[in-house]
Amino acid sequence: MVENKFLTLSDYCEYPEAEMKRRASEFYKEMIRRRTVRHFSDRPVDRSVIEDCLRTASTAPSGANQQPWSFIVVSDLTVKRRIREAAEKVEQEFYSKDATKKWVKDLDHLGTVPSKPFLESAPYLIVIFSKLYDYSSTGEKKRHYYVFESVGIATGMLITAIHHAGLVLLTYTPSKMRFLNKILSRPSNEKPFMILVAGYPAGDAVVPAIQKKSLQEIATFI
Predict the structure, then answer these.
(1) 43: domain CATH number?
(2) Average pLDDT of every residue of the chain
(3) Does the reported pTM lie above 0.85?
């Protein structure tokens, strides 16, 4: 007997056209409010909120459904301090190199500097790792497909979920990130992808005065 590997699409919900338009428009208005924040309150966030956001990220499509990601959620103050110290060491090196001076200049309008206090002040650091490969139960090396595309999609869904829950976040990618493997005891087949800093904004938080490109600038309909 052949095992049935497929299920009926029972969870799909089709909406009337007017409802589709309303939902699409309202979701855009919700997401256009999302801003990258660098000033966080130390106000605690219920862990269950983060857990549900991670569950949302885990529903992302991935190459061959291999789900090649790991999310390490850091709230421990000592570990956050170690991450900050290591990150700032990397940042000082990055900001001082002649080869990156133009890059640093391009970041001026965003207010980025080598100091990263948000890595300690925010209640949660979600460190995302790409799993380059895995091992089967028999120890055989198992290749993953479209790893970075898959992890990128899951990260985007996580960002959306965190914003939708009512929190703010920062996408943070130090120029060198392998120190995260050591601090967080991650295996060599995992490559750091990004740190998402999540929590409530500080009372005096400000954000850069920037604009997003228009639909006409980013999309072409053929």
Answers:
(1) 3.40.109.10
(2) 93
(3) yes
